[in-house]
Specification:
Blueprint lengths: L3 H6 L3 E2 L23 H6 L4 H7 L3 H9 L13 H9 L9 E6 L8 H8 L1 H15 L3 E6 L4 H16 L16 E6 L9 H8 L23 E5 H13 L1 H5 L9 E8 L5 E6 L4 H7 L9 E6 L5 E3 L10 H7 L7 E6 L4 H15 L5 H18 L7 H15 L3 H5 L2 H9 L6
Parallel strand pairs: 1-7, 2-3, 2-5, 3-4, 6-10
Antiparallel strand pairs: 6-7, 8-9, 8-10
Helix pairs in contact: 3-7, 3-10, 4-5, 6-7, 6-8, 7-10, 14-15, 15-16, 16-18
Amino acid sequence: PAAVEDFLASTHPVSPTKAYGHPAIITQTLSSYNPTSLDDYLNQGGYQGLHKAFELHPELVMDAIETTGILGRGGAMFPLGNKWRYTRHAPGEPPQKHIIVNADESEPGTFKDRFLLEEDPYSVIESATLAAYTIGAENGWIFVRGEYPGCYTQIQAAVQRARARGYLGNNILGQDGFNFDIQVYLGAGAYICGEETALFEAIEGKRGFPRIKPPFPTTHGLFQQPTAINNVETLVAALKAWTIGVDNWNAIGTPESPGTKLFCLSGHVKKPGLYEVPFGITIGQLIELAGGVPANTQIQAVLMGGAAGVFIPPTKLDMPLTYEHARAENVPLGSGVVMVFDGTVDLRPVLYQLARFFAHESCGKCYPCQLGTQRQKEILEQVNNGQVTPQTREALLDVGFTMTQTSLCGLGQTAASAVTSALKLWPELIE
C-alpha cells in the first residue's frame, strides 16, 4: 500500500523478547557493534558457529540443523534441513553447488532483512558460509533488492573485508579443501525476482521470469546446477541456533515451532518496528509490545503476511503465532508482516492499492496472473468510484479463484488472497 513507505520511515529495530522470558537471539548483535568492523563482529562472538561446524562432518551439522525445525522465513515455509539435504545429495556426478541468500525483500510491509543486512552483515556472510560447508557448495550469491542501495553497499563492503581476512576464498580458516566465495548482486526493482527461479534467471542475465517446476532448484537451480536458496532471516536463524546450541534453541517457543521469529509491525501502532519474539505469543500480545493502537481507536483489521497475505478480524487476535496455529487457521505468517488498521480506515482504498501493486508487479508470463491482476485492479477502482453492481463481488471472487488455482508461480497464486479474505469477512465493503 502507498502508506507503507510512511510507516517504514519511523521504524526501528526492537528486541523485546525479554518481556516473554527469553533474550533476543537472531537480533542479539543487531546495532550492538560497528557493522563496518569485522573485528567488532569477532569480539561479539562472530564466527564461533563456523569454527564449531568445522569440528564435525557436514552430515552431522545438517542433522543438527534439521532438528531446529526452522522453516523458510521469506514466505514459503519450506523446511530448511530438507532443502540443504536435497542439495547436498543431488544425484549424478559431484556437481558444482550454489548457496543463494535471497535478499530481494519486496513484500509491502516487510523490512526485517534490511536491518540484518545493514546492521549485522557479517552474520549474513557467516550463515551463508555455514550453509556452504554443510551442503558442499563453492559458490555463494547474495541477491539484494534493487531499492536497497544502502544494504547493497554495506554487504558488498563486508564481503570484501571478509575475503581480505581469509573468511572467504580458498581453504577458509585453514580448513583444507573448503573453498567458498560470495558475489553480491543488485536486483533491478522487480518483485517477481523474489520468486526463487525468477531470481536465478536474473543472475544469469535474463529477464526475471519464473520457471516451471519440477525440476526443483535443489537439483536444477542456478545455471541448472544444485542450489540451496534461502531468505536472509532463515540463514541467520540457522546460524544463531547452531551457535547457541540446538537444545537451547528448541527450548524456546513451542515443540512444533521452536525458537524465535522476526515480525515487522506497521500501520496504526504506537511503536512500529522490527520485533523478535518467541513462537507462541499471540497476535494481540505482539501488538501490545508495539504500544497498541492510538488512543480512542480500536483495531478494525490486521493484514498478516503482507500484500500476499490475508486480513484477520479483531476476534482472531488471540491466535498464537506458531506454524501449527497458522496452518489450522489458514493465516500465513509469510515474511512476518503484521500491518494494523484501526477503525478510522476505509479498507476499500487499501484493497485497491494492493490490487494496483500486483497489477504493476506481474511479470506477464502466464495469462491468469497477467490478465487477472489487471482485472482485479480495474474492478476495485470502480468500487472506489462508487460503481458497484450486484455482480461486482462475485466477479472479484471469480477472478481471485482463477488466479489462485491456475497461475504459474506464487505471485499470481496469492495476488487475490488479501482481497478475497476481506470480502469474505466484510461483505459490506462492496454493496
